[in-house]
Write a structure and sequence with these properties.
By secondary structure, the protein is α+β, with helices and mostly antiparallel strands. The protein folds into three domains: about 140 residues, Maf protein, CATH 3.90.950; about 60 residues, Carboxypeptidase-like, regulatory domain (Immunoglobulin-like), CATH 2.60.40.1120; about 80 residues, no CATH class. The protein contains six helices and 14 strands. The chain has a five-stranded mixed beta sheet with strand order 1-2-3-4-5. Strands 8-7-10-11 form a four-stranded antiparallel beta sheet, with no helix packed on it. Helix 1 crosses helix 4, helix 2 packs antiparallel against helix 3 and helix 5 packs antiparallel against helix 6. It is elongated and about 110 Å long. The N terminus and C terminus are likely disordered.
Length: about 325
């Protein structure tokens, strides 16, 4: 987000004598400064009307900056760690708002809200409002908060994901949640899970989460198809060497005695032709075999001729 960001920590002080102290919730709102006050007031009203104890200043300034850094790199494990280590309250709502102007001149609003609770993976909900009026944004905010705040552990499902090999990057609904194996809380319903690991093909799964249930997903990652770059280079180089060899052989001069010097290139042409054929053969072999193996033929040009051999890597 290049537009000016203003971090606003709203200290909501509405103490209800009958409410339990452990039900306190802190709120952090980040995003476009022109819409922050309106959104913060709506979140404040929603929580206050439901008797929630609103905790002022749940995070110190340095922790807010650290939390933002976690979201920039889409690392939910990092975000959870910051909240659990620095938050003054066991529950916190973090809201990120993006604002863009529609062609009609009305605003397009995207809100992503995260519900953090100590000991539980955060839950995220995103809502978009095109050409958003004040009334439409109020409805969107109420819907979003109902989904977040209304979730108890019995209402939240989980996904436990393992991969072979372990250590794969896991992204759920566009948000990175960590490296496998990983357990993550999710709202009930369908979710898209993407798994990626260096040297392996990306995998995508559609997973439906049920309330109070844990969906176990095990993914066997498949190695990415080997590159065909080396075989094609060998074929191209071999073909060029053969053509060069033919030209050198055909344009070689003979010693007729008419000139003090003459250019004899037949031997070089034959050498290049032979080595070029060998290189093209190696390229065809690798192309048919399908990859850049660690073991395979080697072709080299050395002074006085060509060299063809078989090499391996240990």
């Amino acid at each position: 987000m290049i537009r000016t960001l203003l971090i606003l920590l709203w200290s909501l002080v509405a103490w209800a004598p009958a409410a339990r102290a452990d039900a306190g919730v802190g709120v952090v709102v980040m995003g476009d400064a022109t819409i922050q006050p309106q959104l913060a007031a709506q979140f404040e009203d929603w929580l206050r009307h439901r008797g929630t104890v609103l905790v002022p200043s749940p995070l110190p300034a340095d922790a807010i900056n650290s939390l933002i850094d976690c979201f920039v790199v889409e690392d939910m494990t990092c975000a959870r760690k910051v909240v659990e280590q620095k938050s003054k309250t066991p529950q916190m709502v973090f809201v990120k708002v993006d604002l863009s102007d529609a062609k009609s001149g009305m605003r397009d609003v995207t809100i992503t809200a995260y519900w953090f609770e100590i000991g539980v993976d955060p839950v995220a909900v995103r809502r978009e409002c095109t050409s958003c009026t004040d009334a439409a944004m109020r409805i969107m905010t109420d819907n979003l908060m109902s989904l977040l705040a209304g979730k108890t552990r019995a209402e939240i499902g989980q996904i436990t994901l393992t991969t072979t090999p372990a250590g794969a990057r896991v992204v759920i609904d566009g948000t990175a949640v960590g490296l496998s194996p990983v357990t993550h809380s999710l709202s009930p319903g369908p979710h898209i899970v993407t798994i990626s690991s260096e040297g392996h093909a990306n995998e995508t799964r559609s997973v439906t989460i049920e309330r109070g249930e844990t969906a176990a997903v095990d993914v066997q990652l498949v190695r990415a198809a080997p590159t065909r770059r080396l075989p094609l280079i060998a074929l191209g180089l071999g073909g060029a060497m053969v053509l060069t060899g033919i030209v050198l052989y055909a344009t070689s001069e003979e010693d007729t005695g008419e000139k003090p010097e003459y250019r004899e290139t037949r031997a070089l042409g034959v050498t290049l032709g032979v080595v070029g054929l060998a290189a093209a053969g190696v390229g065809a072999y690798l192309l048919l075999r399908g990859g850049d193996p660690a073991e395979g033929p080697r072709v080299a040009i050395v002074p006085g001729g060509g060299f063809i051999g078989w090499g391996t890597q240990f």
